[in-house]
Recover the amino acids of this structure.
């Protein structure tokens, strides 16, 4: 259920993102989804790849500061209030969202990548409510 995500810190200057993407591509790493944000002098690229171990090793070898963490990928009803309804399931359990971003898939389903402060409890709550929590292998087929 948990999916490994790679986070790379990038200097906020021309060419750094392109160089990272080229290094990953040259190593055969496919980026399945990503989120990029900036905080002044640095940016943060979070992504899920077909081979997270290789992605992490390639980015480290290229000189980037890299971490990995676990996130969940959940199917959200593609309708007004779909995300609100899911988040309402977690509120009574005091489970917080640290960040989230969308995953675009081919079948018109809305999928969110979410980092919760307590992944295990979030999985339990979501599964009991019959929310589709993807395994990594299933997410890549979505």
């Amino acid at each position: 259920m948990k999916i490994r995500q790679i986070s790379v810190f990038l200097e906020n200057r021309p060419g750094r993102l392109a160089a990272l993407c080229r290094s990953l591509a040259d190593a055969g790493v496919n980026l399945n989804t990503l989120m990029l944000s900036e905080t002044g002098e640095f940016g943060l690229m979070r992504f899920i790849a077909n081979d997270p171990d290789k992605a992490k090793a390639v980015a480290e070898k290229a000189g980037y500061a890299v971490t990995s963490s676990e996130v969940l990928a959940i199917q959200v009803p593609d309708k007004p209030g779909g995300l609100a309804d899911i988040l309402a399931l977690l509120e009574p359990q005091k489970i917080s969202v640290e960040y989230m971003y969308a995953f675009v898939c081919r079948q018109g389903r809305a999928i969110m990548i979410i980092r919760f402060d307590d992944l295990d409890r979030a999985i339990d709550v979501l599964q009991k409510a019959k929310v589709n929590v993807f395994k990594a292998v299933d997410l890549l087929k979505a």
User: Anything to note?
Assistant: The chain has a mean pLDDT of 91. The chain has five helices and six strands.
